[in-house]
Amino acid sequence: MHLYIHIPFCKQACHYCDFHFSTNTANKRAVVEAIAREIALRKAYLPDGDMETIYFGGGTPSMLDEAELHSLLETIHTHFRVAPNAEITLEANPDDLNAATLQMFAKAGINRLSIGIQSFHEPHLRFMNRAHSALEAEQCVKLAQDAGIDNISIDLIYAIPADDHSILLTDLSKAFTLNVPHISAYCLTIEPQTAFGSWLKKKKIRPIEEEYAAQQFEILVQSLGENGYEQYEISNFARNGRYSNHNSSYWKQHPYLGVGPSAHSYNGASREYNISNNARYLEALQKDAIPATIETLSPADQTNEYLLTGLRTKWGVELDKLETLSVGAFALQANAELGRMTRKGWIREEAGILVLTEAGKLFADRIASDLFID
Ligand code: SF4
C-alpha cells in the first residue's frame, strides 16, 4: 500500500511551476490538521495491508515544523500498519535544510529525501525564481548525509535556455560529486498558468526549442549512464537499483491513497481528485467531508494510463495486461500502429513485453498516445 501527502505551501512561486501550492502560510497548521483528519477518514480506502511507502510531496514539505510532521506521522501510524522497512520520503528544498531540520526529519523516521536542487548555476536559479542559492544546493546534500540520510534523490531541470550545453555539463558534474543514489531530471516546460507561460504569451521569453531540449536530454542520458546511473524511467535514474519505490508503484499501477489539497488517489477502478484550494479543502474537512471528485475509469482509460506510465519505464508494458485491461480492444485497435513503431525502431517486444528502444525514449509520450485506444 502507498500513501501520498500533499503539503500545499511554498515560500515563493517558481516561475515554471503549475503544482498546487500557496505562499500564504497563515493557515498552515489548520491545513495540516485537516490532512490528518482526512487520513483518519480515508483509512478504509485501500485494501488491508502494510503501508510500504509514504511520500510527503508538494508544495514544500520541508516547510513542516516538528509538531506538524509528528502529528501527520502519528496519525498515519494510528490508522495504518506501516511496514518496518517502509520507504518514507520527504521532498525538501535546499534552503530548508540545515543540521537541525535534518536531524528532526531523521528522528521522525524520514529515510529518503527528494531534494529540489534543479540547478547549481546561480543565474539559472534566479531565472526560475528558486528560493535557494547555488551554494545551498551544493551544501545541503552533504548536510543530509551527515545527518544519516543517505537515500537521497536530487531533482535537476534541463533545457533551461543557454548559449550552449556547458552549464548542463557543469550541473551534471557537480551532481556526480555529491554521490547520491538517485537523480530525477525534468525538461523545463512552459505551462500556461505560470509566470513563464504569461511571459511567453507577451513574447518576453522564447519557447524552449525542441531540438535544444532533445540534445540536452541525450547529453544527460549519456552522462548519467557513464556515471553508473540506470535510466529506469524516462526522467529517473538510479545507482545500484535504488529506485523510488513510491513512484515505481504509480508507474506499475498499484493502488495508492493521496491526501491533502489537490492530491489524487487510485484504487484500481477509479481515480479521486481532491480540490486544489486550501481554504475550501479546510472548510470541507472541518465538516468531515472529503472534497474530491471521482472518475470511474473505463477499459480504454485503464489501458491508456498503463501505456502512458508503463512505456516510460524499463519494465515496459505486458501485452497480456493490455488485452485484459482493454477487454480485447488493444490488439484490434493498436496492432497496425505497433507494427509501424516497431519498424521505425522505436519499440520492441521481448517475451510478451513492450519496451521502448533508446531512440523511442526520445518520443515516449507521443508513442504511448499513438497507441491509445478509444
Ligand atoms: S518549490 Fe516546488 S512546488 Fe513550490 S513553487 Fe517551486 S517547484 Fe513549485
UniProtKB/TrEMBL annotation:
GO terms for biological process: porphyrin-containing compound biosynthetic process. Keywords: 4Fe-4S, Chaperone, Cytoplasm, Heme, Iron, Iron-sulfur, Metal-binding, S-adenosyl-L-methionine. One of its GO terms (molecular function) is coproporphyrinogen oxidase activity. PROSITE patterns: RADICAL_SAM. It comes from the Bacteria. It is found in: Cytoplasm. Pfam families: HemN_C, Radical_SAM. GO terms for cellular component: cytoplasm. Residues 1-230 form the Radical SAM core domain. The keyword tRNA-binding does not apply. NCBIfam families: hemN_rel (TIGR00539). Probably acts as a heme chaperone, transferring heme to an unknown acceptor. Binds one molecule of heme per monomer, possibly covalently. Binds 1 [4Fe-4S] cluster. The cluster is coordinated with 3 cysteines and an exchangeable S-adenosyl-L-methionine. Belongs to the anaerobic coproporphyrinogen-III oxidase family. HemW subfamily. This is Heme chaperone HemW.
